[in-house]
Design goal:
A two-stranded antiparallel ribbon has the order 1-2. Strand 1 and strand 2 form a beta hairpin. The longest helix is centred in the N-terminal third of the chain and has 24 residues. It is mainly α.
């Protein structure tokens, strides 16, 4: 169960191999990237509402970051870059900060439209029906129907009792 000192000697002390030098460290970046890509694929398959340009941008960023995480393992190809990356405290925070950034991006609210605003309620299907009745906007129609609103409220209160 002890450490085999025949593997590495440094100034008469036995050093254990670093976790970041193991193949599992490289596979962790691949696994994180593939997980992110698979989560995006599941989101795309299960999406039932209409896609907005914001959704396209957000999922595009997620795919690019997932591929980038997979490509971090290419650090193993160049020994100097590998030593500069793995012997620093940054490998695990790289995963943490990446997934935190993705978490923030995925939970941002949809931005308000800049150029194409939603139609006003008077311009919707109700506007056609109200125009047929001789009203120009929805407010006039609702202000003239106080009597019918009282009847509706009265029937709702009666149901509540």
């Amino acid at each position: 169960m002890g450490v085999d000192c025949k593997l590495q000697f440094s100034n008469d002390r036995c050093e254990t191999p670093r976790l970041t030098q193991s193949p599992q460290f490289a596979y962790s970046f691949v696994a994180a990237g593939v997980t992110l890509i698979l989560m995006n694929i599941l989101f795309i398959v299960s999406r039932s509402r209409k896609w907005t340009p914001f959704n396209y941008v957000r999922k595009g960023i997620n795919f690019v970051v997932g591929i980038g995480l997979c490509l971090v393992t290419l650090v193993k190809l160049d020994e100097n870059v590998e030593i500069n990356f793995t012997y620093t405290p940054w490998p695990l925070p790289t995963l943490l900060l990446t997934f935190f950034g993705i978490l923030v991006i995925n939970h941002l609210p949809h931005p308000s439209p800049l150029f194409f605003r939603k139609k006003s309620p008077a311009a919707g299907p109700d506007a056609v029906a109200l125009a047929d009745m001789g009203y120009r906007d929805k407010d006039r129609a609702s202000s003239s129907g106080h009597e019918s609103q009282r009847k509706i409220r009265g029937s709702e209160e009666a149901r509540a009792l």
